[in-house]
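Exercise: predict the fold of this chain.
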Amino acid sequence: MKPKATVLITAYNRKQFILDAVRSALNQTAAHDEYEIIVVKNYVENSIDEFLSSNNILKVYSDKENQVTFTLDGLRLARGEIIIFLEDDDRFLPTKIERVISRFNQRPSLIYLHNNFKEIDESGKTRSRHILKQASKEILIDTSNLKQRTTPALFQYFAFYNTSCISLRREPFMELLSKYPDLNESPTDLHFYFISLLSGYEIMFSNALLNEYRVHFDSRTFGNFEITNSKIEEMERYRKLYLELATKYVSTFGFPLLMSQVLELTFQEYVIDSARFKPKFRDLLAFSYYSFKRRNRVYLLLVILRYFHLFSHKTLLRLIATRRKIRLNRD
């Protein structure tokens, strides 16, 4: 009998949290015959592999560097009607799978579900203060309705971030993949969201707390502030990609979603490489507007002070790094 859902866990390079993530997917209120677990990773580790095999978990090795194609190597083997994603450093709360399956059963036209999460530290302890802002109410979007696809609430909360909080209906999603290959270069969470926006199905942002999001120094989002040529090249590649997509899909999600991504990357690039790269003043004005809507005002203030040469590039980098460290350690 085919399972109702597939939990797809992705692990790229990191090994220290993967078994914690897998255990959270095993320790669920949903019956074990209702779901399967697939782990996609780019390494071989005997102790991890033995644990996965002993729990009848399918292991998939992938050497793909692109986030989307790496995930797709596991997704193509999934048998469940519903795909529930989990990154290796995050965890499910015990009712996650049961409640996700129930929500998709209630709404046959639902293709995409994003739920809320609580933040935990590196040791797994719950943080009392959130770094990331989340949706405060349930939002249902009919993607055949252009006005709903650009609802301001989604822009304000950026509720589509965090792959571990995303679940998809597999069949319609897989059918859409080949139609929009230019979206495959975007990060996985945005890729799932973009594809779903173009589906004509329903999207739901739930305020149900079903995940634990780990905030730690090795994460891509909150990790150590490092400047490398590859980081700058990646940012510039994404910046150009979002500009192209904003032009091509402007009637669907060009503004404010994609342009806010462009501006965010523009000023991140300016922060780490301001000696060679400086945005236009109109970009600063637009970035100021979006930053106030997102309530990201401290970062904006630092950028403005540097933009008008009120302190040095070295000072800016030190302040940004200090700010990230404070946000990580504050609880």
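Check your answer against the key: Residues 5-214 form a domain with the Spore Coat Polysaccharide Biosynthesis Protein SpsA; Chain A fold (CATH 3.90.550.10).
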